[in-house]
Task: structure prediction
Amino acid sequence: MNLANTPVITLDGPGGAGKGTVSTLLAAQLGWHFLDSGALYRLTALAAMNHGVELSNEAAVAVIAEHLDVRFEQTEKGTKIVLENDNVTEAIRDEAVGRNASVVAAYNRVRDALLKRQRAFAVAPGLIADGRDMGTVVFTEAPLKIFLTASAEERAKRRVLQLTEKGQDVDFDTVLADIVERDERDTNRATAPLKPAADAFQLDTTSMSIDAVVSHILALARERGLMS
Ligand code: DC
Result:
């Protein structure tokens, strides 16, 4: 990893804080690469499910993570994610896969297996890294670290809207309970728990528009000399 030459902006925070949308827009505006690290945990969970691996079996799930056969292909419609020659771009967004991703993400050996793969995304001209431990574990030397938050209710509202737009019938209270449960697991796990890096800039997006969040981060990047 040569961070001296490759600037990295890390965006960490709980699910639904807007990281995905904000990161994609930042990467597009800066012309930088984008790492969706959550997708790697989702892919590990999906591969384990596909291969009939018991999710409670840490060693077996770690082997799956070590041998993940995945390609991220850039297309006109965005990033296409291919797992063992199957297009799983949509499948990994499934709620059940998300829940299982949170389970496998608590395993030390799985996180270790995915570390090198994540760092390999740091190539010129720069990287926007989206996740939970980008600033605290994976890219500790990043010159700009952002921690995005929003209230659990606001995040549930955004999630319900997203799922309704996809034509799914969802119940607010169920989505909220799921978000609270996942936060709890991500925050309290022993390995790489969800928390802001000591040098992270914290931004509460509850009542901010996406554009306002993006502008704010771009201003910080400019201040730090990461862009002209
Ligand atoms: O952001 P997401 O919903 O796609 O993430 C899926 C799960 O993976 C979520 O439970 C948190 C976990 N995760 C993690 O532990 N570390 C990361 N860097 C990214 C995601």
User: Anything to note?
Assistant: The chain has a mean pLDDT of 93.
